[in-house]
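Narrative summary of target 7.
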Amino acid sequence: MSPDDFTAQMDWLMVNRYHPVDFNDMRAYFAGTTPLPSRPVVITFDDGYADLYTTAYPILAAHHFKAVAYIVSSFVGQSRYVTKEQVLEMDRKGIQIASAHGRPSQPFSSIFRVDDVSARRIEALARAAGRSSRG
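Modeled conformation, tokenized:
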């Protein structure tokens, strides 16, 4: 998708009063602790291609939109993919980072320390991979 097309889609969401939410918002809603905004939508990205950071992230930030990025751990830092530093910046700025899949030899938690990404996120990523860092 071109940057102009993505911008047009985000503009449409904004004009039509959609409110991007992330999976933390969804969990809180289903737990009964926080209501969702009107017209909630989850914006997701797969694999962690470089244009997530160079194109989508600035457009999302300009719209003050949240999103969820599924990053393949074994791709981080490879040609055409996001770097660890870019993932950390997006995480700090409201893009929820998740790991959908990756090589068992390089789990997500081997790239990001608890200091880098919150312990809660590391644990959620470990649970999604079928492993728990709690033993």
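Confidence is low (pLDDT under 50) at residues 125-135.
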